[in-house]
Amino acid sequence: MKELYKYRNLPLSPTIVEELILLLFEGQVTTRETIISEIKKYHISKGGIDDNVDLVSQFKKASGSLKKKGLIENPQYRYFKTPNLKRCYQVHKKQIC
Fold first, then answer.
1. pTM for this one?
2. Cβ pair 71, 22 in contact under 8 A
3. Distance of alpha carbon 74 from its chain centroid, rounded?
4. 94 membership: H or E segment, kind and range
5. Is residue 62 part of a domain?
6. How far is CA 13 from CA 19, 48, 71, 91, 92, in A?
7. Is residue 83 part of a domain?
8. Residue 78 resides in a domain
9. Taking CA 14 as the corner, what is the angle to CA 27 and CA 46, rounded to the nearest 5 degrees?
């Protein structure tokens, strides 16, 4: 069975934008405009609500939070860099990284 998008039927919020930045742009240097555009497309395609929120504002709040956590850099105006996150998985009660 296909897993449902956990933000289905919800509008974008800074918290959702944070998660999607890390999911969709891990290890990349990308413009703010591209991030916003791709997050909106992804969210809507998965069943999220497009309620015409100010995505620039949502992005600024999300990126500010990620900067404080050390999970995004702003190397140049309007460009953002996310680190390669070491992803770990739980398999038969063992952590595999």
1. 0.82
2. yes
3. 15
4. strand 94-96
5. yes
6. 10, 11, 18, 32, 34
7. yes
8. yes
9. 75
